[in-house]
Amino acid sequence: MAIAQKLFSEVGYEKTMITDITAQAAIAKATFFHYFPTKEAVLEAIFMQCAQQIEQAIDADTSSTTAVEKLEFFLKQFFLFDQLDPMVTKLEANNQQMLLIGFWQMMQKHLDKTLTSILQQGRAEKTMHIEHLEETILYFWLLISVVLVSAHKKEAAEIFAHKRDIGFTLLEKLLGLPPYSFKLA
After folding, report:
1. How far, CA to CA in Å, does 96 sit from each of 14, 139, 152?
2. How does DSSP assign 104-137, residue by residue?
3. CB 64 within 8 Å of CB 70
4. pLDDT in tens, 73-124
């Protein structure tokens, strides 16, 4: 997968052939197809690996005990995880936005269980005032998407900070948290 990710980042998803991946990995095509039925399946596995690493980091975190601390840690993982940036940039440059959207949604679905657990803990602690969990999760991902797109585009620091602050203010309102609950700057 690392070789495929490197090629997708350097050459582009469309221009990378399975034969390029197998040649650089020094494996037979049959071996590749044993693990991945298509080139898209490799890309999916790369995004899923990212989601799993975020999930594992959250599970391994023992310093965060309250729901707000866990959610803050959850959010930080997205901004620390920049290994996909070159590949995402190349996918965008080659007009593969629909592919990116599909994989972003897949990552969200994978992380929904962790997010739901954190939000339910916040309800139980009475620190988060959430009436409609499913809708809250949907809006959570929309807000995070806007902030992540801004971060990925490498906008000027003050523009990014402004968008981040607006996004987190809206997130605090969505979750019924007091202002400045998140310390993510």
Report:
1. 9, 24, 15
2. HHHHHHHHHHHHHHHHHHHHHHTSS--S-HHHHH
3. yes
4. 888 887 766 666 677 777 777 777 787 788 888 888 889 999 999 999 999 9
Write a three-state SS string for 17-31: CHHHHHHHHCCCHHH
Task: Give the three-class secondary structure for 95.
Answer: coil
Is the dihedral angle over the CA atoms 83, 86, 87, 91 positive or is it negative?
Answer: positive
C-alpha 74/C-alpha 76 separation (Å) is 6
- Using the Cα atoms of residue 81, residue 34, residue 15 and residue 3 in order, give the sign of their dihedral: positive
Annotation: CATH topology of 40-175: Tetracycline Repressor; domain 2 (1.10.357)
- Other C-beta atoms closer than 10 Å to the C-beta of 154 total 10
Structure tokens at 145: 């998407």
Q: What's the whole-model pTM score?
A: 0.78
Distance CA 148, CA 172 (A): 17
Q: Which helix (H) or strand (E) holds 99?
A: helix 97-125
Tens of pLDDT along 136-153? Answer: 999 999 988 887 777 767
